[in-house]
Write a structure and sequence with these properties.
globular, D-Maltodextrin-Binding Protein, domain 2, five-stranded mixed sheet, 21 helices, alpha/beta, four-stranded mixed sheet
Length: 546
């Protein structure tokens, strides 16, 4: 068993595709048809494609062992991590233009950023990152794709409209360089497991590079210090007990609330409520027939649940207009105590807001009578497209990407994540601590462009143990989306319009302006406007693969 296996073998055997990532983006996206990869509908060609051969890196032994859907844990780096790459991978590449988003402040430009300068020196090329805040990235990406000046490497959001067609028109087919044993020329790309490569499949080929992520997906993070201060129950066993916890955490006069994200735009409290209520993870399949989450009583129940919490005043008053970063700031400063975020945010939150105690909560069964559940996430954060070019140029870019994917335990990984020891970080017991300079300079978001397979740590033993215990708790509770890897032409063409049919009513119900009973009529409209066609196409693709 390999250490990065994060979904069942059954899931891995499905033919996946570039836009199957979208399920993790939002309940609305999932509702409209999350598994929209599969390469422009060419399911048969995708099924014949040889994915990159998996050759795991065995250079370091974890402190906490891997398992099914369970990441390995590390307390610290090896005492003397060895360089794993000889020479400069970008030698001769010259300037490499890169478009990528960020969830943190944009770092200083190369002229005043010693880490960026050292990065260019080590790689042997001028890495010209265009780093765009996440809130503005969609617009920037759209204008870039419609223009003539395409960067060498582009981070494509998983919900990019008609992503398979965009990849085919604008970016290189990487199949000759990465399919099967060809990937062994790039050993750190070969170290990325199959689960993360499958969303890169489109148009019968490999059309992108992954930013690997674990199957655990989004997590409801908790401020365990604030919960303990109020002597509240940190592990509710039902929706009723969850509301009791939220009420205990809320003190509007003191400027404190339980929650800051309703989830009407994706994730948030709604996704947690959907998990509690027993809704499908996007779609459910039974006997080859598909049912969308929005069609179920569980979805209506979750809407009612979130609306009731809004009415009780358990959300920050600016919850409906807050940005993603505002939500993190509220959590870090104690204005809210519960926040849904990607599983990797655990370390980000601890590093950004020193002194807080972060935990995580599994979604209980709504009425307390069943088992906890947890929705799986995608295998990759995004799809990184490589600009079309001659073979020599594409190989240069892949060599740089291979360096960026250097795994935990290598000198390259330590530098990429933390910079130069004594300048950007100090090392104690194998755990790097950023300096003031490192906190600003080492913020180049390569981890959203290409990355190593995920691990837990390195960090304080108590923190890594806590993370590992949560992952171990939810590993057997994962609920998959059966449309991952299935393609729907209707979804590719109508997905945005179908989402809009649902989004307005969703917002009005959660705000309390309309009753949840209106939802059934909205769903009928969704079905008639294309939802049923999406379903039919998923069923046909599913039947072909099963």
């Amino acid at each position: 068993m390999n250490q990065h296996r994060v979904l069942s073998r059954r899931s891995l055997l499905r033919g996946a595709g570039a836009m199957s990532l979208a399920a993790a983006a939002a309940p609305l996206v999932a509702a409209c048809g999350s598994g929209t990869g599969g390469g422009g509908g060419d399911v048969a060609a995708n099924a014949r494609l040889k994915l990159p051969t998996y050759v795991p890196f065995a250079g370091v032994k974890p402190d906490l062992p891997f398992g099914d859907n369970l990441l390995p844990g590390f307390y610290g780096y090896p005492a003397d991590p060895a360089a794993a790459v000889t020479g400069k991978p970008g030698e001769g590449a010259g300037k490499v233009d890169i478009l990528v988003n960020t969830f943190t402040p944009v770092p200083p430009a190369p002229g005043s950023n010693k880490y960026w300068q050292a990065l260019n020196e080590r790689v042997g090329a001028e890495l010209a990152f265009n780093i765009v805040p996440d809130a503005d990235y969609g617009i920037k990406l759209s204008t870039t794709l419609t223009g003539d000046d395409l960067p060498d490497l582009v981070m494509l959001q998983s919900w990019t409209p008609n992503l398979p067609a965009v990849l085919k028109a604008k970016f290189a087919d990487l199949t000759p360089y990465l399919s099967g044993d060809a990937v062994k020329e790039y050993p750190f790309l070969a170290n990325i497991p199959e689960f993360s490569w499958r969303p890169m499949v489109a148009n019968g080929g490999i059309y992108g590079l992954p930013t690997p992520r674990a199957g655990i997906g989004n997590v409801m993070f908790t401020r365990d210090d604030l919960i303990a201060q109020r002597s509240l129950n940190p592990a509710p066993k039902s929706f009723e007990e969850f509301v009791e916890l939220c009420e205990g955490l809320t003190d509007a006069k003191a400027g404190r609330w339980a929650l800051g994200d309703t989830g009407i735009g994706g994730g948030g409290a709604l996704m947690f409520a959907l998990t509690m209520a027993g809704a499908p993870n996007g779609w459910a399949v039974k006997g080859g027939k598909f049912t969308n989450a929005v069609e179920t009583d569980s979805y209506t129940r979750a809407l009612e649940a979130v609306a009731s919490m809004v009415k009780r005043g358990l959300f920050h008053p600016d919850a409906f207009s807050a940005t993603f970063q505002q939500g993190r700031d509220w959590f870090g400063t104690g204005k809210i105590a519960l926040k849904t975020d990607g599983y990797a945010a655990w370390d980000i939150l601890l590093g950004t807001y020193p002194g807080i105690d972060v935990g995580a909560m599994a979604a209980p069964a709504y009425d307390g009578g069943g088992k906890s559940r947890h929705f799986t996430g995608p295998g990759s954060f995004a799809v990184t497209g490589v600009k079309k070019g001659d073979e020599a140029r594409i190989k240069q870019l892949l060599s740089i990407a291979n360096w960026m994917a250097a795994p935990f335990g290598t000198a390259e990984h330590l530098f990429r994540k933390f910079g130069v020891e004594g300048v950007d970080y100090t090392l104690q017991n194998g755990v790097p601590t950023p300096t003031k300079q490192g906190e600003t300079d080492v913020k180049i978001p390569m981890n959203y462009l290409i990355d190593q397979p995920p691990v837990l740590g390195p960090g304080k033993k108590s923190v890594v143990d806590k993370q590992y215990a949560f992952h171990k708790q939810v590993a057997p509770l994962l609920v998959e989306d059966p449309t991952v890897g299935l393609y729907s032409t209707a979804q590719a063409a109508k997905g945005s319009a179908l989402s809009k049919i649902l989004s307005g009513a969703l917002s009005e119900i959660v705000r309390g302006n309309k009753p949840a009973s209106d939802w059934s009529g909205i769903v009928r409209n969704w079905r008639q406007s294309g939802g049923d066609q999406v379903r039919k196409e998923f069923e046909a693709a599913y039947a072909q693969q099963h």
